[in-house]
Amino acid sequence: MNINWIAILLAAFSTLVVGFIWYNPKVFGNIWMKEIGLKEVEMKGGNMFKMLAFTFLYAFLIAFILQMLVIHQFGALGMVGGNPSKALPSYNAFMTDYGTAYRTFKHGALHGFMAGLFMILPVVGTNALYERRTFKYVMVTSGFWIVCFMIMGGIICMMQ
Fold first, then answer.
1. Between the CA of residue 90 and those of 21, 68, 114, 160, what are the distances in Å?
2. Are the C-beta atoms of residues 36 and 138 closer than 8 Å to each other?
């Protein structure tokens, strides 16, 4: 099983597109800025290139590991120690029968949703408790990442 770098890059890029929409003032941008205590003028003062570059880098890291969660065949590869050439013939038979099973956008989005809901929401929620952030902040921020995980998972899973 090979890593599909194009899918990972496309999935990482999709977070930028979702972010442009999600954090638009007409969508959730105003709510988010109010909840973190910033004004639009203050947001324009940052180094946008640096923010977007690091956002893409972090999304790339997320997409890289997300493939292990949304593509079931990585589990089979892990069971043989990661080297298919050293696997028993049953591994090759399994991959012949199921190598592309459940490799759809819909299935990847489902697993992306579950990963976001059960990993991102608790992390953002816990941080928000200690940072004294509101429930609205938790919903906007974790909602963004859950949607991103769904899209990323869908892209990664469908691009065989």
1. 46, 21, 30, 22
2. no
